Amino acid sequence: MVAVSSTFAAHDGDCYELQMGCWSRRLAELFLDFSGYTDGEQVLDVGFGTGSLTFTLAERAKVRGICGVDFSSAYIDYATRRNRDPRIEFRTGDACALPFADGTFNRTLSLLMLHFVPRAELAVKEMCRVTQPGGVVAAAVWDARGGYVATRIFFDTAAALDPKANEHRARQYTRPMTRPGELANAWHSAGLNDINETMLTIRMEFASFDDYWAPYVGKDGPVAQYNASLNAGEQAKLRDIVRLAYLDGEPDGARSYASTAWAVKGTMPH
Fold this sequence. Notes:
Strand order of the largest sheet: 3-2-1-4-5-7-6
Mean pLDDT: 93
CATH class: Alpha Beta
CATH superfamily: Vaccinia Virus protein VP39
Distance between the termini: 31 Å
Radius of gyration: 19 Å
Shape: globular
Number of domains: 1
Oligomer: single chain
Low-confidence stretches: none
């Protein structure tokens, strides 16, 4: 039996969209510029969430088909309701035991998923297995410790108030594949060729503190998961102090934070 294959708290597609949807779509554009794509390909999107990468690729390329796999039935239902493209298929699947034969796909991609897989090396092995010789395997994950400002504002503040938050922060910033060179090392260990690692940076913009805070009152993702563990009084106290960190001594209003992801690609040996 395979151990738990994802530690991401996934409950509701609308909540995930509020938290990450617009940012993952923005990152998907840069990721596809980096990973590449070719007309006529059969592509696998592993851990597609609510479909940001899948839908962006479908808009940009004349691919033969895209299969999105995710462990969350809630996300599959959400993406399926949005889909109007007959080339796209969404299905339930485990990144550590992909339900496909060897060499099924020309290109296998994963956006913002591998760092939530405790046995990430097994997921990479599976991504390679289902990719044909000469095909491309590529992934991107947030640089959680060094390049994800919006989340650091929350967890660094919470950790000063609550020892439990420090434990949550430690897990967040030490997830697999999030440190410099980890993705490239995993690709080398998997035997891929022509390996290229880079950084992709977007901006996360918020209209106000309420806009920034809104995703954290749901259940999806590590920040909301921690916030939901607090009682009402604790949540209110945390919110007030995080608000001060957001304001930075200025009136409430728009803020823009850099968010950097590590990305890697390689080709399957012939």
